């Protein structure tokens, strides 16, 4: 990982798991990290923990709740006031296989947080990412579970908003759908950035099987202590440490030979562990018509419209 001095990185979900490990790694290499956290108190405790290991870390904690479009807008407004440019946006935060919940805006929570929240955030930070002379990146954290994800554009809105979403809910189907949306978004964003001639690239990555709180959160919210303990046991037996799980994200964000539109994941056993490499995502993720339809639906649901022409650089 090259020196990150002089670079400013935004990481969502920076207070725990892979986001915490990535924040620590960037800080060790001299980067300035804006820790975007749903709970400011947890973010500050995470920052203090990193400072015990990296005393000169340049860390800023900001509240950003990806389940609330107003919170996302307020966060982006604060960054617009504080900074002139950003070098990397890591769309990392997420929820996995939780019981049915809704966001503040009435969306099924997994799709709302994992995809729609990051879709809105990326647009609202695009001016900072596209600052003159910058060569910035947007890295969206996906999952191998995206391979089981299915998106039917004709039914998508009914499955993520309103009563139909609740009645047809399957937590793993919902998670797979949100992760497929992450990959489709990352690729479509890169194509649109390229068409607009912008100096921003978009790519996606997955961590393999990494030991984080994600596996335990679903059982905990369901009130199942047994499944929570089983998830913890499975993590200890089979998962790679979260430090290793953060490597694809770090590689995607910093490697000199990386290109937009790539998919990075661990190259070891069953792509569950090991060092990062370029990989191929699911066939559905390369469906450009599906990506365009998802983009239009995401604009309609969030009210956020990417005005690429206004961001286009002179180059």
UniProtKB/TrEMBL annotation:
Record GO terms (molecular function): oxidoreductase activity
Entry annotated with the keyword Ion transport: no
Top-rank taxon: Archaea
Record's keyword annotation contains Transcription: no
Keywords in alphabetical order: Oxidoreductase
Alphabetized SUPFAM superfamilies for the sequence: NAD(P)-binding Rossmann-fold domains
NCBIfam families in the cross-refs: PRK06197.1
The protein, known as: Short-chain alcohol dehydrogenase
Native species: Natranaeroarchaeum sulfidigenes
